[in-house]
Amino acid sequence: MESDTTARPAWLKARIAEVLAERKRNPITRILRYDYGGQTVYYISAPCCDQYSQVYDTRGKLVCQPDGGITGKGDGQCRDFEKKKTNEKLVWQDPR
Q1: Per residue in 32-89, pLDDT tens?
Q2: What is the pTM of this model?
Q3: Which of 5, 22, 87, 89 could join 35 in a cystine, given CB atoms 3.0 to 4.6 angstroms apart?
Q4: C-alpha angle 15/6/1, rounded to 5°?
Q5: What is the mean pLDDT of residues 6-22?
Q6: pLDDT reported for residue 58
Q7: Neighbours of 9 (CB within 10 A)
Q8: Domain that holds residue 74
Q9: Distance (Å) of CA 33 to CA 28, 44, 85
Q10: CB-based burial label for 21 (10 Å; 0-12, 13-18, 19+)
Q11: Structural element, H or E, at residue 55
Q12: In sequence order, what are the beta bridge partners of 41?
């Protein structure tokens, strides 16, 4: 997987700082960048299987929660995310 070399938005830097201030998660937090629905989005992995992963636009607005939750299918707001996301880049993963 290719790493993302673009500048991180301020809201994303703050989110990374929040994750690092917490105890290490298992599985670790990963942030990926994709093209989806005609825009660049950031996918933040869930801390556990029954919690939602989150997809944000470049301004930090929640777009949807594509997976996780009790059913594993997210909040239903972007059912096509897995099929239609493209141009995957690793932005950050917890190094601890």
Answers
A1: 999 999 999 999 999 887 899 999 999 999 999 999 998 889 999 999 999 999 999 9
A2: 0.92
A3: 87
A4: 85
A5: 95
A6: 97
A7: 15
A8: 10-93
A9: 17, 9, 9
A10: exposed
A11: strand 54-57
A12: 34, 57
